[in-house]
Design goal:
about 525 residues, 2 strands, mainly alpha, 17 helices, elongated
């Protein structure tokens, strides 16, 4: 065996060992949840499905952390505002804080009201359905993470609940109007997120990047952008992140957010002016002014995500717990602290073990990001959720964030095709060489038409033939360069296709898996 082969074997061995270590730690967490629930809930009547639900809830939470949290920190990592290690640390801490502090004590048993639980009736069948939904959503998220596709955990659990509900009580149980609204969000979320992100990036380019003195432009605009981010995130956290702790209506959230933004503007303006004095007049230097705002954005997005999406992991588990403890099916149930803890810590474990893959996908495998672009994506995430929540539109945070990445990437392509210096220079060179080519041909024709020629005329004719051939080669080359410049793709199409396909099939795939698991449970229990 040669050294090259040995090197490959060692590489794959190390990779498999790392993968085994991650899987072992994930299983250790799930086993810890199993042991805790078994020892604590051992005296609860009909506790089997509650213990199984706790295990599946832990598994679901791990997969949410592995897949969904990447949207909050991926752009910051891709832009190099944060290292992967610190992104994972910040996201894990703030996800857990959001889930525990603001995750709330009440959650809907049926996510988004997609089925009518009254049509099931029997609490035991309802428990089977929720168990199937939880496992199906977790399995689908696990698969999506393994292929590097960031999908919506909300849509995964929606599909799981729908599939189990249909299996338990038929198609009439589904609220098809709600499902239609969810399907519409597949388009609304990424398009709205992409448009807002592209709008912010275009504004930054016009007011900073395209200015002759970028530093001077940054001194004026960056404090305003930081204030705008503060306003958006303060409103976002009050409307979505801490709504279960403190009730604040939208108008009051806007006013309080504006007050906070104004205070931050006057606080950061002299700091930006001081930092700008040390900067060179180029994009890389100006980009550094966006680093600290991006770190705060990653933390705040993670907090809000933990507060909201922990319900995706523990909603069905809380429903199972309530049905077993109360012997009935309720629309809203209390969340015991242990259930909340399973979701909170499971998300952090999943992020730490498996998050890096999806963080890299969102941060660098769709389009190249810098701090300005990542700032635009973070703004899109906050503003889109605010707009959608006020309009009553069901949007996915995953689709918004990834749509924002698409938006800045496609804007870069459009600006390149319409304003690129490379294209302009290629056009000018092509015109100049074409003009020179025509002049050589005119001179050649004039010399060939001479009735009497001297020696220098023949020498010039030969020279002109050579020059014309050279110009023709140059013109061919510049045509290719121009076409290449027009076709530059800043968004990797194969990654976009993979993600979009995963989005489209998430609900039906989770529904099919869930219905299969339900029938399997029903068969086992009936046997």
């Amino acid at each position: 065996m040669d050294m090259k082969t040995v090197g490959k074997v060692n590489k794959y061995t190390e990779k498999s060992q790392t993968g085994f270590a991650r899987a072992s730690l994930a299983l250790l967490f799930v086993f810890a949840v199993f042991m805790w629930s078994y020892l604590t809930l051992g005296d609860v009547a009909n506790n089997t499905f509650l213990i199984i639900g706790a295990v599946f809830g832990a598994y679901m939470a791990i997969n949410i952390g592995a897949n969904d949290v990447a949207n909050n920190v991926g752009p910051a990592v891709g832009s190099k505002a944060l290292t992967l290690f610190w992104a994972i640390v910040i996201a894990a801490v703030f996800e857990a804080m959001g889930a525990i502090i603001a995750g709330g004590d009440v959650v809907g048993t049926i996510k988004k009201g997609i089925i009518d639980p009254a049509l099931i009736g029997d609490p035991e069948i309802f428990i089977w359905a929720m168990t199937a939904a939880l496992l199906a959503a977790a399995l689908w998220l696990n698969f999506a993470t393994s292929v590097g596709a960031p999908v919506s955990t909300t849509h995964s659990i929606v599909g799981g609940v729908m599939g189990a509900g249909i299996a338990a009580a038929g198609f009439a149980i589904v609220s098809w109007g709600t499902m239609g609204a969810i399907a519409a969000s597949w388009v609304i979320s990424p398009v709205l997120g992409g448009m807002i992100a592209a709008g912010f990036l275009f504004f930054i380019k016009k007011t900073i990047v395209y200015q002759e003195d970028m530093v001077e432009g940054a001194k004026k605009v960056v404090p305003l952008l930081i204030a705008a981010m503060s306003w958006a995130f303060a409103t976002y956290l009050m409307v979505k992140g801490i709504k279960k702790v403190i009730k604040v209506d939208f108008l009051m959230a806007l006013v309080l957010g504006f007050v906070i933004a104004a205070a931050i503007y006057f606080f950061v303006k002299p700091m930006i002016e001081k930092a700008a004095r040390k900067l060179k007049n180029d994009r890389d230097n100006v980009n550094t002014l966006f680093t600290i705002p991006l770190i705060f954005a990653a933390a705040l997005l993670s907090f809000a995500h933990g507060a909201n999406d922990v319900a995706n992991a523990i909603g069905p588990l809380a429903a199972i717990n309530d049905a077993i403890m109360g012997g009935a099916i309720a629309d809203k149930v209390q969340i015991p602290f242990w259930v909340l803890a399973v979701g909170a810590f499971g998300i952090s474990v999943g992020l730490a073990l498996y998050g890096p893959r999806l963080i890299k996908t969102v941060g660098s495998e769709i389009t190249e990001l810098d701090q300005m672009r990542a700032y635009s994506i973070a703004m899109a995430a906050a503003i889109t959720v605010i707009i959608a929540s006020q309009l009553g539109l069901p949007v996915s945070s995953t689709h918004i964030a990834v749509g924002g990445v698409f938006g800045v990437g496609f804007l870069r392509e459009w600006l390149n095709s319409s304003e690129s210096n490379w294209i302009k220079e290629t056009k000018e060179n092509f015109k100049r060489h074409k003009k020179e080519h025509a002049e050589y041909e005119d001179e050649l024709k004039a010399l060939v038409d001479l009735e009497s020629k001297q020696k220098e005329n023949y020498e010039r004719i030969v020279e002109l033939y050579r020059l014309i051939e050279e110009k023709e080669e140059i013109l061919k080359s510049e045509k290719k360069d121009f076409k290449a410049a027009k076709k530059v793709q800043y968004v990797k199409r194969h990654t976009v296709k993979k993600i979009v396909y995963a989005w489209i099939i998430t609900v039906p795939a989770a529904a099919l898996i869930s219905s299969g698991i339900f029938f399997m449970i029903k068969g086992i229990m009936a046997g």
